[in-house]
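Consider the following assembly input.
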Amino acid sequence: MSTAEYYTGGEPIADTKAPAGPINERWQTRRFTGRLVNPANRRKLRVIVVGTGLAGASAAATLGELGYRVANYCFQDSPRRAHSIAAQGGINAAKNYRNDGDSVHRLFYDTVKGGDFRSRESNVHRLAEISTEIIDQCVAQGVPFAREYGGLLDNRSFGGAQVSRTFYARGQTGQQLLLGAYQALERQVAAGTVELHTRHEMLELIVTGGRARGIVVRDLVTGEVATEIADAVVLATGGYGNVFFLSTNAKGCNVTASWRAHRQGAYFANPCYTQIHPTCIPQSGDHQSKLTLMSESLRNDGRVWVPAERGDDREPGDIPESERDYYLERRYPAFGNLVPRDIASRAAKAVCDEGRGVGPGGLGVYLDFADAIDRLGKDAVEAKYGNLFQMYERITGENPYERPMRIYPAVHYTMGGLWVDYDLQSNIPGLFVTGEANFSDHGANRLGASALMQGLSDGYFVLPNTISDYLADGPFEAVDEDHESVAAALGAVNERIEFFLNNDGDRTVDSFHRELGRIMWEYCGMERTDEGLRKAIGLIRDLKAEFYKRVKVTGKAAELNQQLEKAGRVADFFELGELMCIDALHRTESCGGHFRAESQTEDGEAKRDDEHFSYVAAWEFAGSEPVLHKEHLEFEYVKPTQRSYK
Amino acid sequence: MAVSGVLMVLFIIAHMAGNLHIFEGREEMNDYAHGLRTFGEPILPHESLLWVLRLGLIASIGAHLWSGIVLSRRAHLARPVKYAHRHKARGESRGAYGVMRWGGITIAAFVVWHLLDLTFRTVNPVKDVPDAYGAVVATFAPERWPVTVFYLLALVALGFHLRHGIWSAVQTIAGPGPVWRRRWQAVALTVAAVVVAGFAIVPLAVSFGLVS
Amino acid sequence: MKLRLRIWRQSDAESKGKMVSYVIDGVSEDASFLEMLDVLNEELIADGEDPVAFDHDCREGICGACSLVIDGQPHGPQAATTTCQLHMRQYSDGDTIDIEPWRAGAFPVVKDLVVDRSAFDRIIQAGGYISAPTGTAPDAHAVPVPKADADAAFSAAACIGCGACVAACPNGSGMLFMAAKVAHLGLMPQGQPERHTRVLGMVAAHDEAGFGGCTNTGECSAACPKEIGLDVIGRLNKDFRKAAARAA
């Protein structure tokens, strides 16, 4: 069936910045061919960095160290609260400290394969190369990584990798890495190279003369709307998982900065690639505001099961072994409970769809530690997972030592994002995008412990090197408040604020967001179908229309107004949600985190269609009918194969 | 706060030990009191030890009070609006805040009375300074029970003050790790108990007629 | 369950605030404390009233944004738990709950339960870092770190910067927050060159911000959702003494 009614085909695009030549020399080549900015000229150049997570704080700090004048924005009350703080597992680096056969090439290979052959080889190789420098950098900053008795760094195998290349700081690696970047950032604030603006939200991108030249921000405390003009703009504003309302993202995470840039012309790539994490605490009721991730490491010792019969509502302890279905062990004997995230997630959904789910609403499966406790002893299990068990008990009121945990998949990460070239520059000159906000390195699926790696790689090492090639042409001509493009951007923002405050509505923003989330989860979640996606697009359009008619926002513009903040974000989520569905609809293959029910193997595994879909889908904003630009993907070093975890 | 406090703690321990001479009898007690005055004579002037102690104590009290006032003032400015709902303390030195502030004021008031009573004898029936024994027996005489009660109350305040003050001073000066912090908290509690018991036994013995 | 909430309402930094009572019914015991407030806010909006502003973000106990003093206790009654991780099963039908913002001169109220904690950022700016510009680092294994030191540094670095220590301290002191950073960096070999300037700078910034002095009451540590111990304060004191002596 044709999907052309939803979009228009556009010209193909290409990444013109990635150098040719042997893959392991490309990054070096690019650093040499890129132009530099004389240290004395750097202080004449102003760079805006939006976001203070790993990708933002590291970029702002490093640009400040280089001598650029940086203005750094975040909506939180402190840069340290950006959601990178919540990453638990660890960070990969091809250090081969274990002598277990790891190398830059292997990390590159694993990442391309893990991304289900939908990422660029050049980018991924650069990421693998830089991974080792990141660890060095973070250790120098005093990040307290886990160590062995000899004083050297400890590593673990993570997410089913065959080598131990994951560096970690207990279950709080993201926190420690972010604090390292945050401290480096605050050091630059003290040095006067970075101006920090907390509790400020970017609401529009200013494009002048074909270049990104600034942003419109709202001071969330006073409500004042102002502009900031610079020579380049860097968006490090994270992912868009909150389009699902319930996700493991922080409540404040939103797509507005990226979406506003998209509306100004930046292409949005692969929006349908979302990662669902299999081990989250299930929803307990309608009050649920977010979902909490339980570290994937739990699957190393826990066994996943559901009752063999549907509708079996006995207590888990009363169900004999013979009446349990350890479905992962049954279906995937080689990997068992350790199958990749997307497979584990879909398998959980499948058993729940059969009516065999457990807990409220039948949306949960058991993760049972009884065998591990028998085998290792309660103390050993507690030593390994004590803090996770405690967190689980706090949230659910159930004791996982005595009763199996209940888990269910939840949206965790979004691989899609603004389209960027090898320099991390979007198709709008002067607009750079780093971290989860761009689409670049993970393809259709991200491996565990790779998000932190990418954020820091972009922020510390890639962007500060590549942005100079663009800034070498600067400083660009002055743009003042009266300039047409500035006035238009400012006007649009004020108009939107006025609209929400004056709308005579009767429904809360959250009620719309919840409903949008339910549509997205139902039709654009773990499993997508042609029929479902078409239905979803219709539902989203209707709901969006109702939103503009009925949304009610209390309060005033000139004050701290959390409802107003949410209203703007949800409005953008509607448009993004629609684009995600269109992207998912047009990509009739399954790959990585995108599973189309129509494209599966006989065993129910994702089936790629390399012949037709070996490309990046970069969408140009054009109202209700977006324009699709395809970037063809070449695989010279890692030949596409079908995954198998049997 | 910590340094001046430590000096005063040392003085208090010596003072308490000295008080126990009363159980040896009137002559020994008065000899001890006399000895304090004539310590080091004739090489050193009369009461030189006492003057060193007095000056040291005055300096310590001054420093302690000044630090206390500065801290209280800062605390006041640091929380201009108080909590509507006050919850009871649950920290390791729970209650220390009130104990130190109000206990410290109680102790200060007591010290004034104590000096007027047993040093200057202004409010003591026995004006003859060398007769320390007589003065003690007279002031804690059973019919003057309010004096004894005040003394004991001040001691309780002192006990709490020491329990927090000693480990707090160690924490400020030495900065122990978790194990040694617990040990110092135990030491502080022990010293506080011994000091309270050592001081309390004298007026109680007099009040109950064991010493007369 | 049905609850009576008494919540501090203050429309902005300049206004005078007061405790206002609300009754909320049908609260699920599985809801988190913040979800209970979400429900209240939905009801307030429906009634055309201004919803209660409060800070929150990750809702999994790590970002440090949530900041409510619940019945006089920062983050509420459960030990080692942030407000977002506190669940309503801790309460019973008919309870009255008092909810106030962090109270500290250095943390002025922005609106309702939201306070300005930027003073903490200023303390970090004054030395809470190791100067290691990007690109200058030696190999990660160049300097071994004894496991015990790395573990102790991690425990101190687990601070989420929420400010519960300040809210709990009878003196309104930021000592535990500051000391946790001094201890973390001071325990790492990489942190040694700046050890003395760091502690002097941070203490000066702390005092400048208007926090009170530390009198070792231990309330901070008891309120700390990450259970940071008082030993970090001992470490700061020791470092400060040495640094001050050297500077003199």
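Chains B and A do not touch (no CB pair under 8 Å). Ask yourself how this observation constrains the way the partners meet.
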